[in-house]
């Protein structure tokens, strides 16, 4: 039932998305990539996957002193930088020539137990390509840290071709979220009767880089001319599927479906951004830190992430393609209201969406209210 055609990407935008997808795959399997901008170039690997052989290869490819690039939040957790006042930003640490792969992994991972003093150096603001390396590692859903070696800019393309390494422009990484959202297009639709909403259809939207699909769950027959009741729900494997009591996600999902059905019609967008955008593996790491005493915000920041890494550009694009530009938003999260508004969707009403604590998630819900500003 699309009311607006998906955007047509330029050839260079399509090429950039495909290169980023290739780079993400390389990083996840322990490979390296080459990044460049107008003035610098480097070879990079995710710190989480570095081993003695790959570290030796990075040193050979670069021929320069390697650096470890961390988010400013992770560097602050290590006592190497001041905490950032807002989101984003990375710092660069020069590492000793004899630093071992395990040393670098330990600096990236708050669950690691160092057996000896780590090779620390003064943190400096990361260059554009180094900052882009961390953003790329985040897209790979790995710990947000990269090991990098500088390259002469004039040699970057030739080295990447000779070694069979993916070559990326830092600017394409910075533009990725916007470009990927614009590339979304519907790929499948089916009628799926639900327990609380039998008149339901699901439309799957896929980005052109082949990434994981986002789902639009249409309940009843919402009118694009009106103000449709909408819920933005980020996937939660543990809460939605397993019924985890550590969060309220399962209650929110099923409660939203029932509430939209009672209202007669509406849309639930099921967004592929597990763990507030850090991925399932990192969410489990955050849970381990919470068991050690950190709250949900501090746990994410110990890992090096911002408290909430989600983006709502895909949600806005899906709503626009479905013809919905005015919504009544079912949420307790003020950032969702602000984010949709920034993306050009008019939020005409905020509809409360509150569920009682269960004894296991009381601290989690209190933290969302006191530290993330969620309405009660």
Q: At the third CATH level, what is the topology name of the largest domain? A: DHBP synthase
Q: How would you sum up the global shape?
A: globular
Which residues sit in consecutive blocks of at least 5 with pLDDT less than 50? none
Beta-strand proportion: 15-25%
CATH architecture descriptor of the largest domain = Alpha-Beta Complex
Would you write up a description of this structure?
The protein has 376 residues and is of the alpha/beta class. It folds into two domains: 11-178, Alpha-Beta Complex (DHBP synthase); 185-273 and 310-371, 3-Layer(aba) Sandwich (Rossmann fold), CATH 3.40.50.10990. It is built from 16 helices and 14 strands. The protein has helices at 11-28, 52-62, 72-77, 101-108, 128-139, 156-163, 170-174, 176-182, 237-241, 249-263, 274-277, 280-291, 296-303, 313-322, 334-342, 362-371; strands at 32-36, 41-46, 67-71, 90-94, 124-125, 145-151, 166-169, 185-191, 200-206, 214-219, 228-234, 266-271, 326-330, 346-351. The protein has a seven-stranded mixed sheet with strand order 5-4-3-6-2-1-7, sandwiched between helices. A seven-stranded mixed sheet has the order 8-9-10-12-11-13-14, with helices on both faces. Helix 8 packs parallel to helix 14 and helix 12 packs across helix 13. The model has no long low-confidence stretch (mean pLDDT 92).
Give a brief rundown of this model.
This protein is α/β, with parallel strands linked by helices. The chain folds into 2 domains: 11-178, Alpha-Beta Complex (DHBP synthase), CATH 3.90.870.10; 185-273 and 310-371, GTP cyclohydrolase II (Rossmann fold), CATH 3.40.50. Helices cover 39% and strands 21% of the residues.
């Amino acid at each position: 039932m699309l009311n607006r055609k998906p955007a047509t990407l330029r050839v260079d935008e399509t090429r950039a998305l495909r290169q980023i997808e290739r780079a993400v795959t390389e990083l996840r399997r322990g490979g390296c990539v080459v990044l460049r901008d107008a003035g610098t170039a480097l070879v990079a690997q995710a710190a989480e996957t570095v081993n003695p052989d790959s570290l030796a290869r990075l040193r050979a490819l670069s021929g320069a002193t390697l650096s470890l690039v961390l988010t400013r939040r992770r560097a602050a957790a290590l006592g190497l930088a001041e905490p950032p006042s807002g989101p984003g930003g990375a710092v660069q640490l020069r590492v000793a020539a004899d630093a071992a792969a395990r040393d670098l992994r330990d600096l990236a991972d708050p669950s690691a137990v160092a057996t000896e003093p780590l090779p620390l150096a003064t943190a400096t603001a990361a260059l554009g390509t180094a900052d882009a390396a961390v953003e790329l590692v985040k897209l790979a859903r790995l710990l947000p840290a990269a090991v990098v070696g500088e390259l002469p800019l004039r040699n970057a393309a030739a080295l990447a071709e000779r070694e069979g390494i993916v070559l990326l422009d830092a600017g394409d990484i910075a533009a990725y979220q916007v470009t990927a959202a614009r590339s979304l297009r519907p790929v499948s639709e089916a009628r799926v009767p639900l327990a609380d909403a039998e008149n339901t259809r699901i439309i799957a939207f896929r980005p052109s880089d082949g990434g994981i699909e986002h789902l639009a769950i249409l309940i009843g027959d919402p009118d694009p001319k009106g103000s449709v009741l909408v819920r933005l729900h980020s996937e939660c494997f543990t809460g939605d599927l397993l019924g985890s009591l550590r969060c309220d996600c399962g209650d929110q999902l099923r409660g939203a479906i029932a509430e939209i059905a009672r209202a007669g019609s509406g849309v639930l967008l099921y967004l592929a951004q597990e763990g507030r955008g850090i991925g399932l593996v990192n969410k489990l790491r955050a849970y381990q830190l919470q068991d050690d005493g950190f709250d949900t915000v501090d746990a994410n920041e110990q890992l090096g992430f911002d408290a909430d890494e989600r983006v709502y550009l895909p949600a806005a694009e899906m709503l626009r393609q479905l013809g919905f530009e005015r919504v009544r938003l079912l949420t307790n999260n003020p950032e969702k209201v602000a984010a949709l508004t920034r993306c050009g969707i008019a939020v005409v009403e905020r509809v409360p969406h509150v569920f009682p604590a269960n004894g296991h998630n009381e601290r989690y819900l209190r933290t969302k209210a006191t530290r993330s500003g969620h309405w009660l």
